[in-house]
Design a protein that fits this description.
The chain has 94 residues and is mostly loops. The chain has 2 helices and no strands. About 6% of the residues have low confidence.
């Protein structure tokens, strides 16, 4: 654990520009309660009445060949079409 570096940006510029790492959790004594929750919580969902229903396109998957169950457990899927292994950073093997 000696080599572990805390709060290191890893070369990511957004860590210093968007305020990440600057936000500190306030202790319970300094928190302010903005409102009391109601028993039903209906006002939390009132904005939904004004929203349009969503639509989705879900293509039908044709069942072709499947992996052997022992191999499927290793790769995380039974279907070869869904087997998308992680190949390292940005698609490059390391």
């Amino acid at each position: 654990m000696e080599n572990y570096q805390m709060r290191r940006g890893c070369g990511r510029p957004y860590n210093t520009t968007c305020g990440m790492g600057n936000q500190r959790e306030l202790p319970c004594a300094h928190r302010t309660i903005t409102g009391t929750p109601t028993a039903s919580g209906k006002e939390m969902y009132t904005h939904i009445d004004h929203m349009e229903p969503a639509m989705a396109y879900v293509p039908c998957q044709n069942f072709a060949m499947t992996y052997d169950l022992s191999y499927a457990l290793k790769v995380g899927t039974v279907f070869p079409q869904l087997c998308k292994p992680f190949c390292g950073k940005r698609g490059k093997q390391k």
